[in-house]
Every structure is written in C-alpha cells, then in structure tokens.
Specification:
Strand content: under 5%
Low-confidence stretches: 207-216
Order of helices and strands: HHHHHHHHHHHHHHHHHHHH
Shape: globular
Structural class: mainly alpha
Largest sheet: none
Number of strands: 0
Number of helices: 20
Mean pLDDT: 85
Oligomer: single chain
Helix content: over 70%
Length: about 425
C-alpha cells in the first residue's frame, strides 16, 4: 500500500509538473498530501510537512539571500566587464559559449557542492546567454550535466555515502571509475557542443560587437544603478563569500545573509535605494523559496510516512533470482532514474544495503553495486530530482520551468550514465 502510494506520488508529481497541469509548488504540496491522507495518516501530515520544511529551511534561506546578493551585484554592473571579457574570448559562437559553460561548471564543482556550482556558474553565464540570445534552459541543462557528472568525486555526497554504507575506503569506489568518469566528462562536453550548435542554428548569424558596450543599449534607469568604481570591491566580496562557504567557516545561509548586508550597504547606502533593490528582486526570491519549502513538504511526507522505505523494498523484490549476477548492470541502468524516487540518504543507507546483500548471495562483489550506484544515483541525477533543493536552486537562478528542465535534461543525464556504465563494463570495473 505505502509503496504504491509512493510510486503514484512520484509519477503524478512528474506528470503534473512536466505537462504543466500544476505549478511545481502546488504539485509538491498537494500530490503527497493526498496520498498520505489516502494512506490513513490524517492530520499527522502536518507534522511530516513541518519536519520536511525544517530540513529544507537552511537552503531556502540561502536561496533568498543569494538571489538578493547576486541581484544587487548585477544591478551594480559587477558582471558586465566579466561578460565582455568572455564575449571577447569566445566571440559570438554559441558552441564555444556552451562548452565554456560546461568547463566552468566542472571546475567549480571540484568542491563537490551543487549549490556552490549553481550559485557561481549560473549568475556568471546567464547575462552572456541572454546577450547572445541562447536559451536559458540550455544553460540549466549544460550546468546540470557538468555538475552531475562531477558529483562522483570522492568528496561528493553520493560517493561518501556509498563508501560509508559499504564500510570501505572511498578510494576503493572512486579509483576504478577514473576512466569512466573521464569518458563521462568528455561526453558532457560533446553534448554541450551539440546544444551550442543547435542554439547557433536557431539564433542564426548575430553580431555582439556592441553588446553592453554603449550606453544606448542600456536602459537609463539601469545605468543609474551601476557602480563601476566599486567593481573591485564587489569582486572581492564575491570571492570572500564563496571562499568562506567552501571552507565551511560559516554555513552557506549565514554567508549570504552577511554578504547581502555588505553588498547592499556598500553599493546603495541610501535606505530608499536599498528598499527599491530588495523590492526589485523580491518576486524571484519569494517564488523560488516557495518551491523550495514545497519540496521540503514533499520529502517530509515521503520519508515520514515510510513510502520511500516501502518503495525500496518493492524494487529489490522485483529483481528476479535469475538476474542476480546482472545486479550491478541493473543497478547502473536504474541508478539515474532512481534519483527521482529516492533522496541520497534513503538510497545509500536504505536501498543499497539490500541490493548489496542480495548481490552477495549470487557471488557478486558488493563494491560493484556501490560503483554502479554512484554512476547515476544523485550524481547525474541530482540536478533534475525533485528530492534535492539544488534542483530548485538551479532552475530558480536560471529562470526556467522545472518541467521544461526535466524534459530536456533527464534523457541526456541518463545517456551520460549509460556511457560511463559501458566504459566501466568495457574496462572490467563492472563484470557479470
């Protein structure tokens, strides 16, 4: 019963969002709530939602203040010189821009944090995509693929969880995957190039020589907001904020609260101007924060009702005995789609132990199950999953619809996982 309700919740959520029958906020709250009531949990749902919101609250706060922070710096013209430099380097070629975006996301994701990657890459590249006329959904897809593949790094959440669950050194899982991951990253660059080529064909021949270079192209009101003399100060503020966040000296939400305060006071010391700047970005911050808290309601209900646990048990039972020796292959193929069903803790500490114990009965090395899992579960799959706050952070920063993002990115993310899986099998990392 619980498993059925859980699967229905996920399927109905994806259908409602991807077909645009419901907004993500409404779907994330209404769908699991209805299923929980059908399951007989009654008004316990209130407690489930509250617990879920508590887990998402820090990310929600971080998102609100990050939007305000980067919004204010954007108003001050901080990113304009950077965009001009990038335009000069890549010209007006969408292919180069797309590949450059993927490389930037890969480099930033060396810290293993999806939130940091999205907060750095998207605001930096969004003005350039807009200037060229490239689709924002392409930006979200490229960044998602790059960050997702890089999320396999040894210090990334999924790999650490898998190693902890298996009680093995993290290098035992990651080292055999060096070539498959490299192949995956190269494939992501090829996809980025392909997306860039499609964008180029859609846009046609354009000239960017004058983009952002003349005052005639800029709204007079926007010019009044720019603070070119504070460029160095603002850049140092961005570096300090990101450096503090990466070094874990302060929680991300606290970092952006402090950074916002400094940015708005330094750039707009007048209180009236401060109110206007906050008002200008409040709509975007509020809209996506509401989606984040709705996602907290969804995950809270799914976890607290036991739906996720029941779903994991059903999936394991569905695997035929005759398929036992192919369990690593099956796990690898299903790893990325399972990101849509299970959060990382539920999978790596709930589902994977059952899979490894089942595999052991067929003489399959549990390590291979772990390796197959991290090829997709909350790696390539995390930037499209409704169970991760980072997904909503990405689409919020890029200004794209969740359904559009999932439709475009899920098939490509699955393809990246399959490429890595094929390479892993070809070099003998995964055998059956």
């Amino acid at each position: 019963m619980l498993a059925t309700l859980g699967f229905l919740s996920v399927v109905l959520l994806l259908l409602a969002v991807m077909t645009k029958k419901l907004t993500p906020t409404v779907a994330l709250i209404a769908v699991p709530t209805i299923m929980a009531f059908i399951g007989g949990f009654g008004f316990e749902v209130g407690g489930f939602i509250t617990n879920g919101i508590k887990t998402i609250a820090p990310t929600g706060v971080m998102f609100i203040f990050a939007i305000l922070f980067f919004g204010i710096l954007g108003d001050a013209g901080t990113f304009d010189p950077i965009i001009k430099k990038i335009i000069k380097a890549v010209g007006n070629d969408p292919v180069k821009i797309a590949i450059g975006t993927a490389v930037l996301a890969m480099l930033v994701h060396l810290d293993g944090s999806g939130a940091v990657t999205f907060l750095v890459t998207v605001p930096a590249m969004l003005p350039l995509f807009d200037a060229v006329g490239m689709s924002r959904s392409s930006l979200a897809t490229i960044v998602a693929l790059a960050a997702g593949t890089m999320n396999i790094v040894p210090w990334g959440g999924p790999t650490l969880r898998a190693a902890t669950s298996l009680n093995v050194p993290v290098t035992e899982l990651f080292n055999p995957l060096l070539l498959p991951v490299l192949a995956g990253l190269i494939f992501v660059l090829l996809i980025a190039g392909f997306i860039g080529k499609k964008e180029k064909a859609r846009i046609g021949n354009i000239a960017l020589d004058k983009v952002g270079n003349t005052e005639e192209e800029v709204d007079p009101e926007k010019l009044k907001l720019q603070r070119p003399k504070l460029f160095a100060v603002n850049i140092l503020l961005i570096i300090a904020a990101i450096g503090t966040m990466i070094s874990n000296l302060l929680p991300p939400q606290v970092v952006f609260m402090f950074a916002f305060c400094i940015a708005i006071v330094v750039n707009y010391p007048n209180v009236k101007e401060q109110r206007e700047r906050v008002d200008a970005h409040a709509k975007a911050a509020l809209m996506m924060a509401s989606v984040l808290f709705a996602a907290g309601a969804f995950t809270g209900i799914m976890k607290e009702t036991g739906m996720i646990t029941a779903m994991s048990e059903v999936i394991v039972k569905l695997i035929p005995t005759s398929m036992g020796r192919f369990l690593p292959l099956v796990t690898g193929v299903l790893a990325m789609p399972m990101s849509l069903l299970f959060d990382p803790d539920s999978f790596y500490f709930g589902v994977m132990p059952v899979l490894t114990s089942t595999a052991a009965q067929f003489g399959v090395d549990p390590i291979m199950i772990g390796i197959a899992s991290i090829l997709g579960q909350m790696t390539t799959g995390f930037p499209v999953s409704p169970l991760t706050a980072s997904t909503f952070l990405l689409i919020g920063l890029a200004g794209v619809d969740l359904g559009d993002h999932q439709r475009k990115t899920i098939p490509l993310a699955f393809l990246v996982t399959i490429v890595m899986l094929i390479v892993a099998i070809a070099i003998g990392v995964i055998t059956f």
